[in-house]
Write a structure and sequence with these properties.
This protein is mainly beta. Helices cover about 10% and strands about 50% of the residues. The chain is globular, with a radius of gyration of 37 Å.
Length: about 850
């Protein structure tokens, strides 16, 4: 906040008075100045980095494929000590990464987004996210550079990784351009039942009618979910070579799609190897074992309300519905925010065994820290387990548990949130029964929920690889500009593919703008692909949320509201029975936590029967968290039900739909009464002072102050205050000079934008009486110390003149009084700033 004119003027007067009177204030300040504090040398990054693995968003990278890559790296920390905040070591200015285009890969944008850093042991673990990478079909070596500042110098470390998903062109030997190039003749998904054997017949096709003598092929599995019984290599000289392999799935393999790898070698007439290649062969396993059947069934906190300094226990109960015994289940408090909670001894990972249809409990001792700022805080939980003990691939799921907390009365202000944001407010599919070959449209509605216009944004539909869905025509993305508060809709023509395996399939949508990238999810109602089998399988009827209403455009934090849902059985004929609907709040973006909870009611509903195409209405009162940041928060609606298929009762998969509800906070931005003199002289400067207090839970933005009225001149124009955070106070001082006698009226006018981006105005009136001191006498009375005050001669006091020491006493007294007043004002303002600074430090 800028210093006001009164304080500046008073400070200047004080300095002049000190100089004139030769007071020893300046030397006193110098002698009492605190000594400089030398900060200890903190941790820094060493001049090296190590590859930490990678993930790509497609399973097979062929020539001209476009894909995204997350590459991980470990950077050793010098002078390591526990408790380091990675954000203290990393910001957008001192660490970044960029990829290198070469003969294997071409990058449209070589720069990468650095995702959340983490301290792991004595390493800084970072993730670099690259987009729009094109594979050129040669080799598999991807190179990128990690650049950072360390020890006063810039460090650039190249990292090379080999992408095993790359499929170099078969038969691309430039020495023999006529060599045959082979590919799969079809993209079948083979089926097998757990505990049984089956056969996989694979046929290749000669893409270029090229020359070859024979093709050798072998089939392999990467884990124990699918076993290849035919271990020997098979050969064929046919123009369309065909190979049959015997495979099996252990009884412990869960329902799902698993990949086998077909490796081929193409030989010429002289026996030389012309080329090699590999292909992914998907196999669908049908099983009674459920891969996602392990859940955090319940949890218990040893204290009803947790506050800073409390020691407490968090007990988690896990339930095994996987239809198989589970061994070595790892339960982790992954990503625990150490500013809010830390372990009170022991490890953050615990391992348990859980019998089939059984339960197990794990307990973590914790301590609450000073960073608790919300009445409900979340603790992240990650569970990792293996369905098949011999499998190298693990099932992992994450959830959060919510603790009732008591924050400190003066919680630190957090950074502004949501001032630059695009949210998906709605989506729809043109078909409720998407299956292989179904053409349909995915329509998205996006809204700029900030008060800032956004340009060069992109919406991109992900995972259109041809496995489950593909683009039917056009591009998978749209570039667009969107004004503040504006909504735009986009439609993508898609087609269902053979890999649809569930009646609910998720299609991710990526939103990117500026340096921000986020992913939202849409859920499509599908008919899983199935071979013509003798069992005449009837799939579970899809259940959907037909519409919902929460009473307006948004809800207010701390104020309960009714949520009304209309649920429909989207099947034509199959009856849904014993339907249980559970409604719960979901975690918001970043660390925003869960915003909604039931208000004095159960969150579960039971419907005995719901015929085909029938609907039922559900209503529940939800309470938004009083301290949630303005944003759109999710509400999860879970469906559990049974149905009758071929005369038998079956249980459908648990389906979870997510809806979003915008949440705003009540505007409690207030102006305190103005302070000024009630009576002033004509032409005298009048000081008017007021302050603004933000008593609301959200910041207000772009605050400006000005003074309006007639009968006076103002010394300054509109004053820009900026943003005022929750719980903060700002001051506004203005000087005006009246130019008419009588009553002068005016207003202090304050404009601002609330958390929803709506511009508002508040007016604070003032009035005072203006008096002229000219009583019609043109003679100015000389008080006796006019122009000749500096010419007083010695002895004048003896002749009846006013003593010189008395004049200095009067002048010195006036200065002292002014000093006292100014010191009081400055100390008051200084104290206020110190309190505000303390709040920020906390």
């Amino acid at each position: 906040m800028k210093a006001n004119f009164f304080v500046k003027t008073a400070a200047a007067f004080l300095a002049a008075s000190i100089t004139a009177l030769s007071l020893p204030f300046a030397s006193f300040a110098e002698t009492t100045k605190p000594p400089a504090v030398t900060e200890p040398t903190g941790p820094s990054l060493s001049g090296t980095a190590f590859s930490g693995g990678y993930t790509v968003n497609i399973n097979r990278i062929e020539k001209d494929s476009k894909f995204s890559l997350e590459a991980n790296a470990y950077i050793p920390i010098s002078n390591f000590s526990a408790g380091i905040d990675p954000w203290d070591m990393v910001d957008e200015n001192n660490i970044f990464a960029f990829g290198v285009s070469n003969e294997s890969f071409s990058l449209m944008d070589t720069s990468a987004v650095i995702l959340n850093p983490t301290i792991i042991g004595s390493f800084l673990y970072i993730t670099a996210y690259f987009t729009d990478i094109t594979y050129l079909g040669k080799g598999d070596s991807f190179t990128y550079n990690v650049c950072y500042e360390s020890g006063g110098r810039s460090v650039t470390v190249p990292i090379n990784i080999s992408l095993s998903e790359c499929a170099p062109e078969v038969g691309s030997d430039p020495s023999d351009p006529s060599a045959a190039k082979f590919a799969l003749a079809s993209s079948n998904t083979y089926a097998i039942k757990a505990g049984e054997k089956g056969s996989v017949t694979i046929q290749l096709k000669n893409l270029n009618n090229g020359n070859f003598a024979n093709v050798a092929a072998s089939l392999s599995s990467s884990d124990g979910n699918i076993l290849v019984e035919t271990t020997e290599t098979q050969t064929s000289s046919s123009f369309r070579p065909q190979f049959t392999f015997s495979v099996s799935a252990p009884a412990t393999t869960a329902t799902g799609i698993y990949n086998l790898t077909l490796n081929i070698s193409v030989f010429g007439a002289n026996g030389s190897e012309l080329s090699t290649g590999s292909f992914t062969i998907p196999v669908r396993v049908e099983s009674d074992v459920v891969s996602s059947g392990l859940t955090v069934y319940s949890y218990d906190v040893s204290k009803d309300e947790v506050k800073s300094g409390d020691s407490f226990e968090l007990a988690l109960t896990l339930k095994n519905d996987c239809k198989i015994d589970l061994k070595d289940v790892k339960v982790k408090l992954e990503g625990l925010d150490s500013s809010k909670f830390v372990l009170d001894g022991g490890f953050s990972t615990k391992t348990v065994n859980i019998n089939k249809d059984g339960q197990a409990k794990v307990t973590f001792p914790l301590v609450a820290c000073d960073g608790i700022v919300n009445v409900r805080e979340s603790i992240p939980v990650q569970v990792e387990y293996k369905i098949n003990g011999a499998s190298d691939s693990a099932q992992v799921f994450s959830t959060s548990v919510i603790l009732q907390c008591k924050p400190k009365e003066k919680a630190p202000d957090e950074e502004e949130y949501g001032k630059y944001d695009i949210s998906m407010t709605d989506y729809s599919f043109s078909s409720n029964a998407i299956q292989k070959g179904t053409k349909f449209n995915l329509t998205l509605t996006l809204k700029n929920t900030s008060s800032t216009d956004i340009t060069n944004a992109r919406v991109s539909v992900q995972e259109l690889t041809g496995s489950k869905f593909a683009i039917d025509s056009g591009l998978t993305y749209r570039n667009f500009d969107i004004k503040a508060g504006e909504s735009k809709s986009f439609s993508f023509p898609l087609i269902g593919c053979d890999g649809i395996s569930s009646m609910r399939e998720v299609i991710p949508v990526e939103l990117s703008f500026g340096n921000v990238t986020s992913t939202v999810y849409t859920t499509a109602s599908c008919v899983p692909s199935a071979d013509k089998d003798p069992d005449n399988t009837v799939f579970a009827p899809p259940i959907i949320i037909q519409n919902y209403d929460f009473g307006g455009e948004y809800v207010i934090g701390g104020t309960a509201f009714p949520l009304k849902l209309t649920v429909q059985n989207a099947d034509d004929s199959t009856v849904i029975e014993n339907l249980k609907v559970t409604i719960s709040g979901g975690a918001g973006n970043g660390d925003s936590g869960v915003a909604f909870s039931p208000a004095n009611s159960s969150n579960s509903f039971f419907i005995e029967s719901l015929p085909g195409k029938a609907t039922t209405d559900i209503e529940i009162d939800l309470l938004p968290r009083a301290d949630s940041k303005p944003d759109s928060y999710p509400v999860n609606v879970a469906f559990e039900y049974e149905y009758i298929a071929n005369g038998k009762r079956a249980k459908g998969e648990t389906v979870t739909e997510t809806i979003t509800i915008p949440l705003q906070q009540e505007d409690r931005f207030t102006l305190n009464p103005a302070q000024y003199s009630e009576s002033v002289g004509l032409g005298e400067m009048v000081y008017i002072s007021t302050s603004f207090v933000n008593k609301g839970k959200s910041a207000v933005y772009n605050v400006t102050a000005d003074v309006e009225g007639e009968g006076f001149d103002k010394s300054q124009g509109t004053y820009y205050v900026g943003n005022v955070n929750s719980g903060s106070e700002e001051y506004y001082d203005v000087q005006i000079t009246p130019n008419v006698e009588g009553t002068v009226k005016g207003n202090i006018v304050v404009t601002y934008e609330d958390s929803n981006g709506t511009q508002k105005e508040q007016r604070l009136p003032f009035s005072f009486n203006v008096i002229s001191y000219n009583w019609g006498n043109s003679e100015i009375i000389d008080p006796g110390f006019g122009e000749d005050i500096g010419m007083i001669e010695p002895g004048m006091e003896e002749n009846g003149g006013f003593p010189m020491w008395a004049w200095f006493a009067i002048g010195g007294g006036a200065v002292v009084i002014a000093i006292i007043v100014i010191v009081i004002v400055v100390k008051h303002r200084k104290k206020k700033r110190e309190l505000e600074d303390d709040d920020e430090v906390i």
